[in-house]
Amino acid sequence: MQAESLVRVACVQMDPRVGEPEANIAESIARIEAAAHNGARLIVLPELCNSGYVFETREEAFELAEEIPGGKACSAWIDAAQRCGCWIAAGIAERADGKLYNASILIGPDGYFGKYRKMHLWAAENLFFEPGDLGFPVFSTPIGRIAMLICYDGWFPEAWRLCALQGADIVCVPTNWVPIPGQAPAQMAMANVLAMAAAHSNSLFVAAADRVGVERGQPFLGRSLIVSCTGWPVAGPASDTEAQTLFADLNLSEARRMRNWNEFNQILRDRRTDAYDRMLGSDAKPGWY
Question: What is the largest CA-CA distance in the chain?
Fold first, then answer.
């Protein structure tokens, strides 16, 4: 067991309120502390959970955003991670050099570790945020190699694949999923299906933390989930209406072993790189896989 990466992962499903950052931060801290008390070492929070999501004006979005890592939400999460000895992946509205980004940050017991900026903007996000410009970073941590995507990024197979090609074990997904046309009430959410498919086809664990509630007329799906590197859910989908926290005990080392499906097939090495570019035309550096 010395070669294993045993981690309890938690996905926090909550209902942030637009324009109420102090209350949102306080709720997130309470839920982080509760998850850590329950043994979680990696805790994922929803998209834009510090600010809320449905902005009316750019000015409002700008006022609710903060610099990374010096803002109020970042500072509170850094303090919580240090006190609780955990890792936190959280969605946040970032303000940098007069620009806004829909971002997520990774924080560990020793403080701020890194950030990701959402690459694929959804709907009115295009009125407020700049497209991400950091690529798809993978962070090597003591508990495993962690990547992050945000919500609509999950609809792009290239995003997951580039995380896998750089050696990610788990992808944390802060998200604010909204209803998709044509979905019947009893059906699994399309976002759940996409997360499961991506986990399976890339041998990645996926921890997706969604929000619930209705904000300025926009409903959110909930249905957070944690997916094994085999593609099957190991926790969730969560409620579509209630705040709750999902837990799963994962062995992140399995993401690396399961890429070898049998004596003939390894999902990433079987790719036909004679027919298409190994790194999908990106300048990302391949990692171990």
Answer: 57
Alpha-carbon distance of 155 to 106, in angstroms, equals: 22
The amino acid at 267: I
Catalytic residues: 47, 118, 151
Region at 190 (left for phi over 0; alpha for psi -120 to 50; beta for the rest): alpha
The pTM of the full predicted model, rounded to 2 decimals, is 0.95
Q: Are strands 138-141 and 144-148 parallel, antiparallel or unpaired?
A: antiparallel
- 180-228 confidence digits (pLDDT tens): 888 777 778 999 999 999 999 999 999 999 999 999 999 999 999 999 9
The residues near 37 (Cβ < 8 Å, ≥ 6 apart) are 84
Residue with tokens 């399976």: 200
- Name every residue whose Cβ is closer than 8 Å to that of residue 219 and which is 6 or more positions away in sequence: 178, 179, 213
Closest CA to 81 of 50, 109, 46: 109
Question: Hey, which bits of the chain come out as E strands?
Answer: 6-13, 42-44, 87-96, 99-108, 111-117, 138-141, 144-148, 170-174, 205-209, 214-215, 218-219, 225-227, 233-235, 244-251
What is residue 181's predicted lDDT score, i.e. its pLDDT?
86
Q: Span 97-125, mean pLDDT?
A: 97
Name the DSSP class of 75. H
For 63-108, what is each residue's pLDDT tens digit?
A: 999 999 999 999 999 999 999 999 999 999 999 999 999 999 999 9
Residue 9, classed as helix, strand or coil, is strand
Q: What separation in angstroms does the CA of 173 have from each of 8, 19, 98, 251?
A: 16, 23, 26, 18
Distinct helix (H) and strand (E) counts, the chain = 7, 14
Q: 3-state class of 124 per DSSP?
A: coil
Provide the 10 A C-beta neighbour count for residue 10. 27
